[in-house]
Amino acid sequence: MKPIAIFRHAPSEGPGYFALFLNQHAIPWRLFHIDEGAAVPANADDFLGLVFMGGPMSVNDDLPWISPVLSLIRDAYAKDIPLLGHCLGGQLISKALGGVVSKNPVKEIGWGEVSVANNDIARQWFGETKQFDSFHWHGETFSLPQGAVHLLSSTHCTNQAYAIGRHLALQCHVEMTEQMIRDWCEIGADEIESARHSPAVQSSTLMQQQMQDKLPPLHHVAEHLYRHWLRGLAH
Question: Using CA atoms, how far apart are residues 152 and 172, in angstroms rounded to an integer?
């Protein structure tokens, strides 16, 4: 079986709960450490699917790996090889498919409720779930590429997720683990402080106080999403 390719763009923003999910289902995967200079594959055919994680950079930055990643995404989309993006990863998919990534009205950092859109495609991805608390850490947002179906929104960000066929792009983070939240709070302490007046930014203390209660239901949502995404893989 071909592996799933997972792309890491920052040391602290690995696959998290998604890797645990794949291991539990005996799905092979390969991690590309883009942050350490790993070469971007040229051919999407080598993989069952492509998964892009988060990162502190912007997809609009002049970084050497962004152009080949966008080309790889377009190659996978043309061949209907499933794509999955988390936050920056969702923004990369959007930009590759003709969407626009721009500044969100406010930064979202910490726990916040998202609402599932009232359409049949959203119900396929989220089942009976109507709202849930997700984790957020972003200052930019994506527009929906042509043909995309809107899936999620929050009070402070209209486009939290969309699907195009078997491809899924998320602005919010469903892949979080306790350790990832602790690491992000430490690494992002200055960012939290500078954005503390935003109505959508929590303190690091509050984020960590809430994670034991909020992570199990978030993982339940993530499992439903990931199971649906796996159905699109060509074995």
Answer: 9
Query: Around Cβ 130, how many Cβ atoms within 10 Å?
Result: 12
Exposed/middle/buried for residue 128 (C-beta within 10 Å: 0-12, 13-18, 19+): exposed
Measured between alpha carbons, how far is 72 from 22 in angstroms, rounded to an integer? 22
What digits encode the pLDDT tens for the residues 4-39?
999 999 999 999 999 999 999 999 999 999 999 999
- Let me know: does 178 contact 222? Beta carbons within 8 Å: no
E strands along 44-170, which residues? Answer: 50-52, 83-86, 101-116, 131-142, 149-154, 157-164, 167-170
For tokens 């999620």, the residue is 152
Is 0.90 surpassed by the pTM of this model?
yes
What tokens were used for 170?
């998320």
Domains contained in the chain, CATH given: 4-230 (3.40.50.880)
